[in-house]
Amino acid sequence: QYLTRFEKIMKFDQFRQFQRSKIGSTAKEVREGWVNAIISTIQKNFDKVGKGWFSIHETNPDTYAEGKVKKLLHMVRFMMEDSMRYFVLDSVADY
Q: What is the Cα–Cα distance from 40 to 33, expressed in whole angstroms?
């Protein structure tokens, strides 16, 4: 989230530096925490699935394209994008 609560008046350069720092730490948290947690959860829950629609070990591109795991991963991506959208909108509203 953007830094939206300030204790005192500050110069623009200081404001910009605070915002860059906050954006950087948030991006790192998303990349290293949120994304890795989702990857880990998917791998843990689908690792033991053998051959079939939800095999995450599929190497044949045609089989993957027709499988349900591709659709699941697309759905996960859309849900993550939606979450990020609301995260940004909430930050803007707070500002």
A: 10
SS3 for 56?
A: coil
pTM of the model: 0.71
Count the alpha carbons within 13 Å of 76 in the hemisphere toward its beta carbon: 13
Share of the chain above pLDDT 70, in %: 94
User: 25-59, pLDDT tens digit by residue?
Assistant: 888 888 889 999 999 999 999 888 877 778 888 88
**CA-closest candidate to residue 84, choices 38, 42, 34, 39:** 34
What CA–CA distance (Å, rounded) separates 74 from 79?
9
Q: Which residues contact 4 (CB under 8 A, 6 or more apart)?
A: 91, 94, 95
Let me know: does 32 contact 50? Beta carbons within 8 Å: no
How far apart (Å, rounded) are the C-alpha atoms in residues 63 and 67?
6
